[in-house]
Amino acid sequence: MKAPSLLVAFALTLAAAAPLRADARDDAKKQVEFGISVAQRGLWREAIYRWQRATQIDPSYAAAYNNLAVAYEHEGDFDKARQSYEKAVELEPKNALIKQNYELFKEINDRTTRKDGQ
Amino acid sequence: MTARLARTASSLVAAVAMTACTSYFEIPIETPIRPKLDVSAFQRVLVAGFISGGSEDVDANLETVRLLRSQLRTKSELRVIDADVLPLVDVASEGRDGSNGSEPAAEPNPEPHAPPAQIKDEKDLEPYEHIFANVEYWKKIGEEYQSPLIVTGTIMFTPHQRSGFVQREQEVFDSLGRRRVVPIRTYMERKGFILKPKFVFIDGRTGTTLHSETFREEILYNANQSTPALSSYFELMDRLIPSFLSTLSSQRIRGTRVLLK
């Protein structure tokens, strides 16, 4: 008797959580889209703020981390760019576009940190 | 019911296609690269001269000084000093005779390990390299030019040839006249040059070395192709100039990235 009620409670929790997740993703997506529109106009600081908000709202949103990494790269903040790319790749390891961005970033980063004679 | 289903399906397909088309945006970015060396203490830069060797067809000392000065004039905030190019080979040879390199020795002593008159390979450069550690000499040069950042070093520009299999693309047509490009491996004799510069950055106030960096670039052509040595030199220098400049001044690397929705 107890087990079925637990199952029901679990199912209800899942059912309630799913729309919450969807809502979070929707909110985060709005921030991401706004960030893209301002980045396209060269307002990278504002874009960073928007994409940071998106990652706070939905920490599993790989696109937000990818965009954040691009913005940090543009601002010359390589440590934060690397962290954000790594998070994006961790969340979506098969996303070719994220991997492509990360590879391009690493190429530049390696060049700047290259030691004497290498 | 069927019409509704079809409408839903078609709108779903349209939505998927739309998402596929608009879910990413290519955006140009300019990545700022911080200089490897903090040159904020300097207002002037003196590209003093280089110990050069290898091909006799190019005066690598003179050409490198000219090229670096012109690049620094346009791409660095430091004021470039126009001065005669230092004959560092002579200065280094004199320095070995105990005159410290700052003035010519009266009577050079013959030495068992005297530097070679002609620098043909990297080993020949070694007897001259002590000049870069000669703090007094560089301090004196620094005093003469109001304590600039001094750029010096060695340049080896040597002819090079290599033979072996290389992969190249060849156009082929099938029986229907359709064109295809296929990779083929062919044995080729190639010749070209290797450029190996070592840039040494010296503090003109103290005469000490702040930073040094070695690069290597290589170019090969078909053996039957005749490319002037000077063209090859500039082609190779062109590849490493951005790295040289990034040591002294912040650079912006242009590229594109993809933003995702």
Judging by the overall fold, what is the CATH architecture of chain A? Alpha Horseshoe
Q: Got a strand count of chain A?
A: 0
From the helix content, strand content and strand pairing of chain B, which structural class follows?
alpha/beta
How much of the sequence lies in strands of chain A comes to under 5%
What count of structural domains of chain B?
1
Which structural class best describes the helix and strand composition of chain A?
mainly alpha
The percent of residues in helical segments of chain A reads: over 70%
Q: CATH superfamily membership of chain B, which one?
A: Lipoprotein like domain
Residue runs with pLDDT of under 50 for 5 or more positions of chain A:
none
Counted beta strands of chain B = 8
Q: What's the shape of chain A?
A: globular
Distance between the termini of chain B: 34 Å
Strand/helix succession of chain A: HHHHH
Integer tally of domains of chain A: 1
Pick out its properties:
heterodimer; A: 118 residues; mainly alpha; Serine Threonine Protein Phosphatase 5, Tetratricopeptide repeat; 5 helices; 83% helix; globular; B: 261 residues; alpha/beta; Double Stranded RNA Binding Domain; two-stranded antiparallel ribbon
Word description of this protein:
- The complex is a heterodimer of chains A (118) and B (261).
- Chain A is mostly helical and 118 residues long.
- Chain A has helices spanning 2-39, 44-57, 62-75, 78-91, 96-113.
- The radius of gyration of chain A is 19 Å and the shape is globular.
- Chain B has one domain: Double Stranded RNA Binding Domain (2-Layer Sandwich).
- With 261 residues, chain B is of the alpha/beta class.
- Chain B is built from 6 helices and 8 strands, in the order αββαβαααββββαβ.
- In chain B, the strands form 2 sheets. In chain B, strands 2, 3, 4, 5, 6 and 7 form a 6-stranded mixed β-sheet that branches.
- At the A-B interface, helix 1, helix 3 and helix 5 of A face strand 1, strand 6 and strand 8 of B.
